[in-house]
TrEMBL record:
It comes from the Bacteria. It catalyses: D-glucose 6-phosphate + UDP-alpha-D-glucose = alpha,alpha-trehalose 6-phosphate + UDP + H(+). It is an enzyme of class 2 (transferase). Keywords: Glycosyltransferase, Transferase. GO terms for biological process: trehalose biosynthetic process. GO terms for cellular component: cytosol. Pfam families: Glyco_transf_20, Trehalose_PPase. The gene is otsA. This is Alpha,alpha-trehalose-phosphate synthase. In the C-terminal section; belongs to the trehalose phosphatase family. Belongs to the glycosyltransferase 20 family. Its EC number is 2.4.1.15. The keyword Transferase applies. CDD domains: GT20_TPS, HAD_TPP. It comes from Salinivirga cyanobacteriivorans.
Length: 737
């Protein structure tokens, strides 16, 4: 049975060796919780590193680790100390992490880190290879594994691969700094579905793909070699009930049953009933803006002295990546700042900052969330920030105020928080003041609204949403492979072709017989194409018709004396072998006077763009312009044209970085029908790759063999991968006996 393979750098397991004894417990982190519905026993497998290096697990324990992991449907990816040093602490945390969080000054560009990153991603791919089976879905998590989608796709092109990035994707101007930027993008594009927390991250990703790889993005899809890659936004949620219910149940406990920390907090409030708690919780990371938060709190005590003795900042910093330099430096800076503030302002009854540098058990986390009046979360950059969501979920009676940095992904969904710029110390001080003075009704309205949202889009919903999208991608792939014109089917079609006595073949040119070129002038027919077409046309039972949106010029040059029929300008002009060109009757081109100045205006305003005048259409090309400006202007132009053409029989075609306006009463479909009407033809075939060919596929009689080149959805009966396969298929027809 097809299964799901979840892959993350770390397995959702806590593995410890004490006195040569192994203990393995499932971890309860957000990701593991979210995956519960996806990571079901029996039909899923989680691949990742156990947290113990190969050097730490001796041979006796190896089998135990495997067995204990297997019990939780997990598979260990073996990593050595050197791997962890250079792949994890190195490339992941000293290159990608700072760069993607805009800390370019901390970013290290070491070739050996990169080499290890690649090697470890390959190690992951090898483990995947041992477990993957046809029909499996793969969901890869986060920045440590950005090359893995491509490594899997290359080996298993039919697998459905999803990738989710938990951290920000930086703007193009920052991402372009990375020496291995194209490799990273290509690695990611191995996935079929790429998920981000916010629209900004997605749009930055698209911008880099467009500018660095030159791929066109259509709404939220990228088509590469006829493969569709979809991207979407999935803002990660939390296990709402777990946080809310734990908070309710802890507050309901009798005093003696409460945790020690809870009792201490209660006691403090008894002694000093006016005291208000302001809470911050983060991993100790330079992205979290901890120092600036302390400066802001100090400034708050200066600016609002009435709160001295009455506002306590409880700051929980969880140790993290301790062997990375910046983290050590930051730790000393924070120690010093806390010391300074406490030294300057403490009284016998009051300490301004309570600083915990350790991880606390879940119950204590809840104690802090539920006992605090304000949460002060000020990351300089943060992919999402789950602490903000957990704090809101843990508020009982809807009281509490969230102050949140606008640089977090969470800020996009939590506009009821007091949003601050983490670099604006004065504004943070004011925000603390505003929070402490906020009337209860206002607190309730804000928290209620956020709680309702968090309840709805919880972490399970997030995982299901991503997973359902991945399933859709997989179904789409299955549908396409069902329509694939396999070699066996090609031979079946060839039999019918052979039996027929009168045949007509409508074949599109660019992208169907030759590779689609940025500049169509360069897409000359190869000698192979000419041989195939000549051979087909030499058979008197065949009529070969080349159908194109091009104008006559190039075809006149390449095919003038050929024995094939040429249809150009989307069906407006036609030339039969040995005859002159004829034009479809009654096509009005007066409209050009109206449209041309508009296109020229866009040409003038957008460097690198130009207008092409064809006999029956006008085209504005933007392939040479700045890609984003081009797309932006194209959208503007489309809008303007749509209203302009409202009372004319015109249509707008969007193709390959161009916008074309043409008469709507000409179409490839109509031209093809004109060719076959009134004739008795017993084999009709149409092959094409762009959407104007769809008109032929739809209008030709049902028995016609219609073939779409590429994998996008089509009304054609069959799909074929690319122009090379088309040539192969035409050879099969020629060889039919
Ligand atoms: C990355 C992205 C994105 C914290 N201290 C304790 C503790 N925690 C738990 C919190 C929360 C989690 O750790 C921290 O999550 P964040 O989202 O705030 O931050 P990162 O660790 O940086 O996570 C981030 C996230 O991935 C998900 O996509 O939101 O932007 O950087 O769940 O509760 N848990 C316990 N004791 C502690 O002392 N038990």
């Amino acid at each position: 049975m097809a299964k799901t393979i979840i892959i993350s750098n770390r397995l959702p397991l806590q593995i410890k060796i004490e006195n040569e004894e192994l203990t393995v417990t499932p971890s309860v982190g957000g990701l593991a919780t979210g995956m519960k519905s996806v990571h079901k026993a029996g039909d899923s497998l989680w691949l990742g590193w156990s947290g113990l290096t190969e050097e730490e697990i001796d041979d006796n324990l190896k089998a135990d680790v495997e067995a204990a992991s297997a019990k939780e449907a997990c598979v260990n990816v073996p990593l050595t100390q050197d791997d962890v040093e250079n792949f994890y602490y190195g490339f992941s945390n000293k290159t990608i992490w700072p760069l993607f969080h805009y800390f370019t000054e901390y970013t290290e560009y070491q070739q050996h880190y990169w080499v290890k990153y690649r090697e470890v991603n390959e190690k992951f791919a090898e483990v995947v290879a041992k477990h993957i089976e046809p029909g499996d879905k793969v969901w890869i998590h986060d920045y440590q594994l950005m090359l893995l989608p491509q490594l899997i796709k290359e080996r298993y092109p039919d697998s459905a691969i999803g990738f989710f990035l938990h951290i920000p994707f930086p703007s193009f101007e920052v991402f372009r700094i990375l020496p291995w930027r194209t490799e990273i993008l290509e690695g990611l594009l191995g996935a079929d579905l790429i998920g981000f927390h916010t629209y900004d991250y997605e749009r930055h990703f698209f911008s880099s793909v467009r500018r660095l790889l030159g791929y066109e993005i259509n709404f939220n899809e990228i088509i590469i070699n006829n493969r569709i890659i979809r991207s979407d936004i999935f803002p990660m949620g939390i296990d709402y009930d777990k946080f809310h219910n734990a908070s309710v149940s802890q507050q309901r406990k009798s005093v003696k049953d409460r945790t020690e920390l809870h009792q201490e907090l209660d006691k403090h409030q008894l002694v000093n009933p006016e005291v208000r708690f302001i809470l911050s919780i983060d991993r100790l990371d330079y992205t979290k803006g901890i120092q600036k938060r302390l400066y802001a709190f100090e400034h708050f005590l200066e600016k609002y002295p009435e709160y001295r003795g009455q506002a306590t900042l409880i700051m929980l910093c969880v140790p993290s990546r301790q062997n990375v330099d910046q983290y050590q430096r930051m730790k000393s800076e924070i120690d010093e700042l806390v010391g300074r503030i406490n030294g300057n302002y403490s009284t016998i009854n009051w300490t301004p900052v309570w600083y915990f540098y350790r991880a606390l058990p879940f119950e204590n986390l809840i104690d802090l969330y539920s006992s605090s009046d304000v949460a002060l979360l000020t990351p300089i950059r943060d992919g999402m920030n789950l602490v903000a969501k957990e704090y809101v979920a843990a508020q009982i009676d809807s009281k509490g105020v969230l102050i949140l940095s606008e640089m977090t992904g969470a800020a996009k969904e939590m506009s009821e928080a007091i949003l601050i710029n983490p670099n604006n110390i004065d504004a943070i001080a004011d925000a603390i003041h505003e929070a402490l003075a906020m009337p209860a009704e206002e607190q309730i309205t804000r928290i209620d609204t956020m709680q309702n949202r968090l309840k709805r889009y919880n972490v399970e919903k997030w995982a299901d949403d991503f997973f359902n999208n991945l399933k859709e991608v997989q179904e789409q792939q299955a549908l396409q492979s069902g329509k694939k014109l396999t070699e066996a089917m090609q031979h079946e079609v060839a039999k019918d072709f052979h039996k027929a006595k009168s045949r007509i073949l409508f074949i599109n040119y660019d992208g169907t017989l030759v590779a689609e070129k940025e500049n169509p002038q360069k897409a000359k027919p190869t000698s192979e194409v000419i041989d195939i077409l000549d051979t087909l046309a030499a058979d008197s039972h065949n009529e070969v018709v080349i159908v194109s949106g091009r104008d006559k010029k190039a075809f006149d040059k390449w095919f003038k004396d050929k024995n094939y029929t040429l249809i150009t300008d989307y069906g407006a002009s036609c030339k039969e072998p040995g005859k002159e060109w004829t034009e479809a009757e009654g096509i009005d081109t007066d409209w050009k006077k109206l449209i041309l100045p508009v296109l020229e205006f866009y040409e003038d305003r957008t460097p690198g763009t130009f207008v092409e005048e064809k006999n029956y259409s006008l085209v504005w090309h933007y392939r040479k312009s700045d890609p984003e400006l081009g797309v932006g202007r194209a959208n503007e132009l489309k809008d303007q044209l749509t209203s302009l053409i409202a009372n004319h029989d015109l249509e707008i075609l969007e193709a390959n970085k161009s916008i074309e306006v043409k008469n709507s009463d000409t179409s490839k479909g109509k031209a093809a029908m004109r060719k076959i009407n009134g004739r008795s033809i017993d084999f009709i075939m149409a092959i094409g790759n762009d959407w104007t060919d769809e008109q032929m596929f739809r209008e030709l009689p049902d028995e016609a063999v219609t073939v779409k080149v590429g994998k996008t959805t089509s009304s054609a009966r069959y799909n074929i991968s690319n122009y090379k396969n088309v040539l192969q298929f035409l050879k099969v027809l020629i060889a039919a006996e």
